[in-house]
Design brief:
Elements (H helix, E strand, L loop, with lengths): L1 H16 L19 E10 L18 H6 L5 H8 L1 E5 L4 E9 L37 E3 L2 H4 L7 E4 L4 E4 L4 E4 L18 E7 L32 E14 H6 L11 E5 L9 E2 L12 E6 L8 E11 L3 E4 L11 E8 L4 E18 L2 E10 L2 H12 L9
Parallel strand pairs: 11-16
Antiparallel strand pairs: 1-3, 2-3, 2-9, 4-13, 5-6, 5-8, 6-7, 7-10, 8-9, 9-10, 12-13, 13-14, 14-17, 15-16, 16-17
Length: 399
């Protein structure tokens, strides 16, 4: 039965391959915009964390899209508090850094899409679902080092706390804040946090190979859905040197705003030597090719396997993107990305536009609704994360 299902899914993907390519006149393009400047100011030492609680591999919130849209817009001073951040060092020391915001207009503090929240009404569900799989399981296990070690799948990494992450710099990993901090304290294992890279188990292993048509990634992200040869792989681990977590997560995990800031950045002790994926300000879901988002992670129901999925984006707020991408705990922290035309570079470019946070359910008029939620990279978040990576604001003015 499983082989028959795999064959059926592969047949459907072959149909996608037969679709005509996107013509240049209708190319969805990355629109560069000037972003604010988020600069660190004074830094103070904080008490050493306890590292007692185990990491939660998923996070939930009772606040649905309408709840988020009704929330008051944070003021300039609110945003300074929310974007202040803690830094956990590998020796266990903890610091807190205040930030300043410059070149910022509060009335335009959202990605170009923040006002388009009504687009997902047709995708709302009034049926109670007990899993994070919505109907037919649309996930694909990526097998064979020819694909696992090839961009974009090679940017997905595993955290020693059980979550996933995405390479966004030569030694930087973007993940979810709840993977290292439960909203009250840093989780067990956060001090000695490691990042795992899938590599061949034997050096002399011959890579498996499958033919991939040149226009394949105009539609989907890989072709290892044919019956694959599973190469023996293992994780090679690199220790994290620093972990940055915004105070918006630490202060807000117990209320509605917490999920808006469920992101963190890890700095590794040494470069990983792989190609990373660029950051991008999250565009409106309506501007995404087919309204589609993608992400790959290490779902815990498929141990040792990299799992890729794509789906149609649903509702959105200025900070969150709701969708029904199939996922299981362990996938949280994965970088949500899109592929569009870069007019300046004259090429197709994938960019990380969000972080997969987890599962969200809410009771509305006596019925349960469920979503999977990603934290969108807004202009302010882009400025902050970019500064953490680059160490200066000059290279972070356009996103």
């Amino acid at each position: 039965m499983r082989s028959r299902a795999a064959l059926s899914r592969f047949t459907s993907l072959l149909f996608l391959l037969s679709l005509p390519p996107v013509f240049s006149s209708s190319r969805p393009q990355w629109i560069l915009q000037r972003v604010p400047v988020v600069l660190p100011q004074q830094t103070e030492t904080r008490p050493v964390p306890h590292f007692l609680s185990p990491a939660r591999l998923d996070v939930s919130s009772p606040c649905d899209p309408e709840c988020h849209k009704r929330a008051p817009r944070p003021s300039y001073w609110d945003l300074r508090q929310l974007l202040a951040y803690e830094t956990l060092h590998s020796d266990g020391q903890l610091t807190e850094t205040a930030i300043g915001i410059y070149g910022f207009n509060p009335s335009s503090d959202s990605s170009p899409a923040s006002s388009s929240g009504s687009s997902g009404k047709a995708e709302r569900s009034h049926v109670r679902r007990k899993r994070q799989i919505f109907g037919h399981d649309g996930r694909f296990s990526i097998a064979g080092q020819n694909f696992l070690l090839k961009y974009p799948f090679s940017v997905a990494v595993k955290l020693s706390t059980g979550c996933s992450g995405t390479l966004v710099g030569d030694r930087h990993v973007l993940t979810a804040a709840h993977c290292v901090h439960d909203g009250k304290n840093y989780v067990k294992g956060a001090q000695k946090l490691r990042v795992g890279f899938l590599k061949p188990k034997h050096r002399d292993t011959q890579p498996s190979y499958f033919y991939v048509p040149s226009n394949f990634t105009n539609h989907v992200e890989g072709a290892s859905y044919a019956p694959p040869i599973k190469d023996k792989m293992k994780f090679q681990w690199i220790r994290a040197k620093r972990t940055h977590v915004p105070k918006g997560w630490i202060k807000g995990n117990a209320n509605d705003i917490g999920m808006d800031y469920d992101y963190a950045l890890l700095e590794l002790k040494k470069p990983h030597k792989r190609r990373h994926m660029k950051l991008g300000v999250s565009p409106s879901a309506q501007k995404l090719p087919g309204r589609r988002v993608h992400f790959s992670g290490y779902d815990n129901d498929r141990p040792g396997e990299l799992v890729y999925r794509f789906c149609r984006a649903g509702e959105e707020t200025s900070d969150l993107l709701y969708q029904h991408c199939d996922a299981k705990p362990g996938a949280s922290g994965s970088g949500v990305y899109a592929r569009m035309w870069d007019g300046r570079q004259r090429r197709w470019e994938r960019k990380v536009i969000g972080v997969f946070s987890g599962h969200q359910w809410v009771e509305r008029q006596g019925a349960s609704q469920e979503f999977n939620v990603a934290v969108r990279i807004t202009p302010l978040k882009y400025a902050q994360i970019c500064y953490w990576i680059k160490g200066n604001f000059v290279d972070c003015r356009e996103g």
